[in-house]
Amino acid sequence: MNETLKRILENCRRYTLNGHVADYIPELAKANREEIGIFVATAEGDYCAGDWDKPFTIQSIVKPIFLMLAAIDNGIDFVKDHVGVEATGKPFNAIDYAEPLLLKEHINPMVNIGAIAVCGLVKASSNEERFRRLLDFTKKITGNPLLEIDKEVYESEKKTGNKNRALAYLLKNSGMIYGSVEELLDVYFAMCSVKVTCKDLANMGLLLANRGVDLCGERIIPREDAVFLNAVLTTSGMYDGSGEFATTVGIPAKSGVGGGIMADCPGRMGIGIYSPGLDKKGNSVAGIKMLEKLSEELELSIF
Ligand code: GLN
Fold it and tell me: How do residues 137-150 score in pLDDT, each as one tens digit?
């Protein structure tokens, strides 16, 4: 398997030059688009190639983490009373929700507006506690107790994230955020800045692939929440590229503008990808190519 990963990675290396690093968060513009890594975690063992141990910020791959903890805290029905699950077909940072009031069924938890709303559903008596619970939960599902935030990226997004600020105030105006908007945004920005590696993402994927049970047999996520999440990832984890991704790769996955992709093949494996050159939709170009090849060779598609 290590040989397979190495060969796929080398074959896809040229695609890194077709992507562009995110620069709307100034600190992310410092990434090197030529980096590329992959990590596969299975019950039988781990496999890797390239820059799999290079840390990068989790960005939107935190969205399924918000959704999982919100579902664990409140139940899926409660969450679905607040946000919808239909793919929006819009860019991840879209703001054209042209209703006098936002309609919950238009708000998908895998795009920014829905993720900010779902972040607010995580139970806590303060936003410090909300952040602490989310970070602890992220440590648990990645199996990495050393995770921390990248302060530079956090400050950079906090300073420039006015579109997210606008989305959050839109939510507040529609009664979809209860407490302080600025404090909730702070939790959102901080969690987007958690530093991870491909291995962390692969371990998270493996937990979802095993429908919430870790390798020691401990149930970390209720089965129904893991199944729910995999379904949402399949329909909207790659933003407005989710349909195409379903046809070419065919497994639940979530991307982030840091260049990461977390994917899982139910019953088989978790996959972590890093390559910061992005396409216009904000998905890693070489990352998607690697997943296409891997899916083809190992027949991963769930369809
Ligand atoms: N922190 C980023 C933002 O809110 C996450 C977006 C992404 O990864 N697509 O814009």
Answer: 999 999 999 999 99
